[in-house]
Write a structure and sequence with these properties.
This protein is mainly α. About 70% of the residues lie in helices and about 0% in strands. It contains 21 helices and no strands. Helix 5 (about 110-115) packs across helix 6. The longest helix is centred in the middle third of the chain and has 30 residues, at about 265-295. The radius of gyration is 22 Å and the shape is globular. Residues about 1-45 and about 240-260 have low confidence and may be disordered.
């Protein structure tokens, strides 16, 4: 017997969807931008008011902007933080591995919290935790306090990571691709912005790394405001359809329905592997790519710009890729195309790291857009709101655990070989199983269907 919390699924799909403001209700035979018939969506309900739709969009965008600055701002000032807190090099190395570990551990709590308090309330609490963690950690006088405050902020990021696809599925069931693209684009923008402006902003604030890190709490505090409004207003829940009041997860079905066991789902495991391998590649890129370029003879300032190019590529593509993938029945070809771009870039890095540096940076930026593709598939591989909660938590928690060894292995190989040949081969090697997992995860099926077949 599985020890996972068992959330029942409905025996019959609903036949209506929540229509966007200003449109008529979708028919049973209609097709949404997620490529699914409207019969497969969660629940029927009244149309959301325009002001509520705008508040939800603002909440999604602001939350997404805050899901990475806690990490990339620290990376930009890691040397200053290490010296200021008298950290050893090994402790600083551990600090860079804390984010995926926290995402995996704390992300497992998101489904239980969402069932008890509602996903909107949990995201609101997550934004508050991010704000508090970012505000407290610059004033920590020791390594333990700094790590504790960082972990508190990362806890808020972890639960929000898991529940973003759930919020989209709940309130925008016929706009999964569009809304996933919107918050993925905001997430990429927040990531790139924190990496690019933290150092100049620190210098403008007097050169104190404490001020440079603490200022990001302001952006997190702004993100709390729309979520407070959504939690306080009961019409947000009623607009999501029957059974969507705080403390429930739409689409959960009756207690007598068959339980959903993700450990027996090939699609869930494929999604987790795809997510974990792309996350490993992203952390390797953020942590090691500037050093690869610098060791090849690229000036330090140019190496930083090349990393910025890699990150900025995710801003427009994070909006385009989910919308494109959501209109396809099978997303495996998109995953293969992204992986192929990465393979070409790594071959180029080995053969001509300086001469083609800008081209390799662009291709790596395209390859890193496997992240919004993974988020899109999470929303498409589950039919019900409860399924999205469970699949999102499983995919991201298991995936982040898979991602932890990658950056560490690259560092070990670099240290023992003194060059980048084997590390680059390892990075390219990760893309092969990632593409295979993407093909399996991209098949046109849902975890609820797999549960029925296996039961």
């Amino acid at each position: 017997m599985s020890d996972e919390p068992q959330i029942p699924i409905p025996t019959q799909p609903h036949t209506q969807t929540l229509s966007p403001p200003g449109t008529a209700s979708a028919s049973v035979s209609g097709v949404t931008d997620s490529g699914c018939s409207s019969a497969s969506l969660d629940s029927a309900g009244p149309r959301m008011p325009v002001w509520l739709t705008r508040l939800l969009v603002a909440g999604l965008v602001l939350a997404a902007l805050n899901l990475r600055p806690a990490i990339t701002s620290l990376g930009s000032l890691l040397e200053e933080v290490r010296v200021g807190l008298h950290m050893s090099g090994s402790v600083a190395g551990v600090l860079t591995s804390v984010p995926p570990l926290c995402f995996a551990l704390f992300g497992f709590t998101a489904p239980r919290l969402a069932r008890r308090f509602g996903p909107g309330a949990v995201v609101c609490a997550g934004m508050i935790a991010i704000t508090a963690g970012l505000l407290i950690r610059p004033f920590a006088n020791g390594t333990v306090g700094f790590l504790a405050a960082s972990a508190f902020a990362l806890m808020g990021i972890a639960v929000s990571n898991v529940l973003m696809p759930v919020i989209v599925k709940r309130y925008f069931p016929d706009r999964v691709g569009t809304m996933t693209g919107l918050y993925s684009m905001a997430l990429a923008l927040g990531t790139a912005s924190a990496a690019a402006v933290t150092v100049p902003m620190t210098e403008a604030l007097g050169g104190s790394w404490r001020m440079g890190l603490g200022v990001w709490a302001v952006l997190a505090a702004v993100a709390v405001l729309p979520w407070l409004g959504l939690v306080r207003d009961r019409s947000a829940a009623s607009a999501a359809g029957p059974g969507a009041m705080p403390g429930s997860v739409p689409g959960s079905g009756s207690a007598s329905a068959a339980p959903l066991r993700l450990r027996r789902s090939r699609t869930a495991w494929a999604l987790a592997c795809f997510f974990g391998l792309q996350a490993s590649g992203a952390y390797i890129t953020m942590g090691w790519m500037p050093q690869i370029f610098r060791d090849a003879g690229v000036p330090a300032g140019t190496a930083g710009l090349l990393l910025a190019v890699i990150m900025v590529m995710g801003v427009p593509l994070a909006f385009v890729i989910p919308r494109t993938a959501a209109r396809m029945k099978n997303q495996g070809s998109v995953g293969v195309a992204l992986g192929t771009c990465g393979l070409i870039a790594y071959v180029g890095l080995y053969v001509a790291p300086v001469g083609g540096a800008w081209l390799w940076a662009v291709l790596l930026g395209i390859s890193n857009c496997a992240f919004p593709l993974a988020l899109t598939m999470i929303g498409m591989r589950a039919r019900t709101g409860a399924g999205v909660v469970r699949l999102s938590a499983f995919t991201q928690c298991v995936g982040y655990l898979i991602s932890i060894p990658g950056p560490l292995l690259v560092g070990v190989l670099y240290q023992h070989t003194g060059g980048w040949g084997l590390p680059i081969a390892l990075m390219a090697g990760f893309l092969v199983p990632q593409m295979v997992a993407g093909v399996v995860a991209g098949r046109d099926r849902t975890i609820e269907e797999e549960a029925r077949v296996r039961d």
